[in-house]
Amino acid sequence: MARSQQTYNKTEKEKKRLKKREEKQKKKEARKAEAKEGSGIPFAYVDHNGNLVDTPPDPSEKVKIDAESIVIGIPKKEEGDEEEFDPVHKGKVSYFDFSKGFGFIIDSEDQEKYFVHVSGLIDEIDIDDKVSFELEKGMKGMNAVRVKKI
Hints:
By secondary structure, the chain is of the alpha+beta class.
């Protein structure tokens, strides 16, 4: 006689699966019964402090707000609010490869390293030269351009 193909492990997995299905069905029926006898959707209110509460807010605590006083967006700058910003930075050439045409400059203020390409040079530079430069957004970050020797 042939042996059964069903192993103990398979029967246990099947029992677990059936039990899970029954529990899911019971939960579904309980939700349906609760929805029928419930009074509907519960409401949540926002009180004058912005907190969620289950009771309606007191109309006497309501504050009238003028719609014109609400500013949407960034307020316009007025005369005298502008800060003077110097686009020219000073730094020192830490590395420059003449054969490849690029190098790096360390800013003297914040010690940041900036990439410099030979196309961004005004004067010819060498390693350890003090330079002034401007920053420009490149593909991989900020690049030093208009580099002049000091």
